[in-house]
């Protein structure tokens, strides 16, 4: 079923993690490349992507990779719209249109949108977080700040390096206040 979907050791790990979740109800699973004992995958691999794949497996059975790829591609298209909106907010509608189109034709992003990896899955969450942060900054509404923070938390459950974002955002907010 995965004949045409790019495979890597990481995508195999995520698919195996999804299978393990469905069979045992537990998240932790040894990385398939590590053969001499448990790996630290539970500490470096976040749970949301395997849970997403497990959900795709529940819905689509053997079509799981295709459903996940389709949903990730739709998320990538939504991210292009969000890039347009962010650039429009910061500059103008012409800049927004150019940014959205450049995002769509940027080959590494377009090519990897359907890969079973966390990067293409997380990207729409990152762009939506930036959009919500801009909305929060402009409106000063607590709900926008809360939504942006919650989405950043969700993104952290996809990719662990997202944990670095909150200190950077606090630093940015502090610098903005001091101006």
Mean pLDDT: 86
Q: What's the Cα radius of gyration? A: 18 Å
Number of strands: 0
Helical percent range? Answer: over 70%
Described by the principal axes of the CA atoms, the overall outline is globular
Poorly predicted runs: none
Count the helices. How many?
Answer: 9
Oligomer: single chain
Portion of residues in beta strands equals under 5%
The secondary-structure class comes to mainly alpha
Largest sheet: none
- SSE succession: HHHHHHHHH
User: How far is the N terminus from the C terminus?
Assistant: 56 Å
Walkthrough of the structure:
By secondary structure, this protein is an all-alpha fold. The chain is 73% helix and 0% strand. It is built from nine helices and no strands. Helix 4 runs antiparallel to helix 5 (93-105) and helix 7 (118-139) runs antiparallel to helix 8. The protein is globular.
Tags for this model:
179 residues, mainly alpha, 9 helices, globular
SSE layout:
Blueprint: H1 9-24, H2 41-44, H3 48-60, H4 64-90, H5 93-105, H6 107-112, H7 118-139, H8 142-156, H9 165-178
Helix pairs in contact: 1-3, 3-4, 4-5, 4-7, 7-8
Q: What's this, in brief?
A:
The chain has 179 residues and is mainly α.
């Amino acid at each position: 079923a995965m004949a045409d979907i790019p495979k890597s050791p990481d995508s195999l790990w995520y698919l195996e993690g999804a299978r393990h979740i469905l069979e045992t109800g537990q998240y932790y699973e040894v990385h398939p490349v590590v053969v001499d004992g448990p790996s630290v995958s539970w500490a470096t691999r976040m749970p949301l992507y395997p849970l997403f794949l497990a959900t795709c497996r529940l819905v689509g059975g053997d079509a799981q990779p295709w459903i996940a790829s389709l949903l990730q591609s739709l998320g990538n298209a939504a991210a292009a719209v969000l890039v347009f909106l962010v650039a429009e907010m910061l500059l103008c509608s012409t800049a927004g249109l150019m940014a959205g189109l450049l995002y769509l034709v940027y080959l590494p992003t377009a090519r990897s949108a359907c890969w079973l990896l966390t990067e293409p899955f997380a990207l729409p969450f990152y762009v939506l977080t930036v959009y919500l942060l801009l909305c929060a900054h402009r409106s000063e509404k607590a709900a926008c700040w809360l939504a942006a923070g919650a989405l950043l938390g969700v993104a952290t459950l996809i990719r662990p390096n997202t944990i670095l974002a909150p200190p950077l955002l606090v630093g940015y907010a502090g610098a903005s206040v001091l101006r």
